[in-house]
Write a structure and sequence with these properties.
467 residues; eight-stranded parallel sheet; 13 helices; 23 strands; globular; binds N-(aminocarbonyl)-beta-alanine; binds zinc ion
């Protein structure tokens, strides 16, 4: 069965041009000058007046993550369906090894959650919650046999996922040997815990104190320390996750300027939301925006610097860190004590739109939009050129995006399993029109045509983004 996406403007990381995209089965077979595709009994997707882009890749999600005494509220079913609605056709979720647990058992548990439940293709990173000799050996096995080539470590959350500097160094050395990437949650969790206890002792219990006890300096310090540890590990590739602050970005920029294999992502919440406006909302409302790293102050230059970092490639990727919790019964676990609010924001459905708004606002080019939401994540995490590009031989993961459409973000209309929206009322001057995953239509004409179980596990290779 062939399908032709015709009449649109193909946007890729390297350029924009009118083209018709011919799909055979699950794969793109050719791009043609408009109207030049061979005749055939093609199913036609009319993209006239619209952009045609590779399906989005969200390289940072947490479906069903057990965290803060509860579980992230999206399952692989609900979360990947919402992703599809928003033009994301691949997620890379984090399988978890908890402290004391065998890495392979943690991975098996994650496969059990995801298998047969996903609407879009999925891959895994592995969280290492306990770096010991067995975990180090398991890293080699995951890279060689399981298609998992990136490992997340935490400098935050003592007693939960935290690794000390010795454990971090050993994991980095191992990654340097087996070709993997170390992903780092860079916040000084030991110092943060002191500030949290001091704040609670002063009776400062409201959600805004989550942000105030996680100051920028402790993100910058940890980012710097991670970069230096990776240097000691003979330039182990390092990827800083959910970077939120100007000073942390400066650390990444300096390392990149020195030619190091240091990369970073940011997330839409750090580009649009603030400590005062969201986390500081009246009463307990701010709990909706408790996430780590935290939202930063609007009185500082974070938004401006992060958008600039996206332009300069000191920020290479935009992921969501999708980790949704409902307000009722989940965020409410922290009523009277901000340190008990489960950390996380949901946004897997809105990343493509929120970054497109950056194009409309003149902050990013069209090509850079596609690069940061699809092409670089594919290259960074060993999925390219199967994913992240519209080219012959690539999977036919295609999004038709309508620049004349409009999207209003709201809990009333979103598809994530959340009882609120972090972006309630946001207006986007564009709209996801049609979504294909491996040639199958998931979204068209405002209707959902996808199905649970369509999504397949992707074994990833090594990063092809290293210098
Ligand atoms: O607040 C966050 N980011 N929750 C998810 C876990 C993590 O640290 O990525
Ligand atoms: Zn994290
Ligand atoms: Zn995360």
């Amino acid at each position: 069965m062939t399908l032709l996406v015709s009449g649109g403007t193909v946007v890729g990381a390297t350029g924009t041009h009118p083209a018709d995209v011919l799909v055979d089965g699950e794969t793109i077979v050719a791009l043609y000058a408009p109207g030049r595709a061979p005749d055939g009994d093609h199913r036609v997707v009319d993209a006239t007046g619209k952009y045609v882009i590779p399906g989005g890749i969200d390289a940072h999600t947490h479906m069903e993550l057990p965290f803060g005494g509860t579980n992230a509220s999206d399952t692989f079913d609900t979360g990947t369906r919402a992703a599809a609605y928003g033009g994301t056709t691949t997620i890379v979720d984090f399988a978890v090894q908890r402290t004391g647990e065998v890495v392979q058992d943690g991975l098996a548990a994650w496969h059990a959650k995801a298998e047969g439940n996903c609407h879009v293709d999925y891959a895994f990173h592995m969280i290492l919650g306990g770096v010991d000799d067995d975990a180090l050996k398991a890293m080699d096995m995951l890279v060689a046999e399981e298609g998992i080539s990136s490992f997340k470590l935490f400098m935050a959350y003592p007693g939960v996922f935290y690794s000390d500097d010795g454990q971090i160094l050993r994991a980095m050395q191992r990654a340097r040997e087996n070709g993997a990437m170390i992903m780092m949650h860079a916040e000084n969790g030991i110092a943060i815990d002191v500030l949290v206890q001091q704040a609670l002792a002063r009776g400062e219990t409201a959600p805004i104190h989550h942000g105030l006890t996680r100051p920028e300096a402790l993100e910058a310090e940890a980012t710097h320390r991670a970069i230096r540890l990776a240097e000691v590990a003979r330039d182990c590739p390092l990827y800083i996750v959910h970077l939120s602050a100007s000073q942390a970005l400066a650390q990444v920029a300096a390392a990149r300027h020195a030619g190091r294999n240091v990369f970073a992502e940011t997330c839409p919440q750090y580009l649009y939301l603030t400590l005062e406006d969201q986390l500081g909302a009246p009463g307990f409302e701010g709990a909706k925006w408790v996430c780590s790293t935290p939202l930063r102050s609007r009185h500082e230059s974070h938004h401006r610097d992060l958008w600039q970092g996206l332009r300069s490639n000191d920020l290479a990727v935009v992921s969501t860190d999708h980790c949704p919790f409902c307000f009722k019964d989940q965020k409410e676990l922290g009523l009277g004590d901000f340190s008990k609010i489960p950390n996380g924001i949901g946004g897997v459905e809105h990343r493509v739109d929120l970054l497109y708004q950056g194009v409309v606002d003149g902050r990013l080019t069209l090509e850079r939009w596609v690069e940061t939401i699809a092409t670089t994540p594919a290259r960074m995490f060993g999925l390219y050129p199967r994913k992240g590009v519209l080219a012959p031989g690539s999977d036919a993961d295609i999004v038709v995006y309508d620049p004349a459409g409009r999207t209003t973000i709201s809990v009333q209309t979103h598809h994530m399993n959340m009882d609120h929206s972090a972006y309630e009322g946001y207006e986007i001057a564009g709209r996801v029109d049609t979504v294909l995953s491996r040639g199958s239509v998931l979204v068209a004409d405002g209707t959902y045509h996808g199905r649970r179980g369509h999504g397949r596990y992707l074994r990833r290779g090594l990063s092809t983004y290293l210098s």
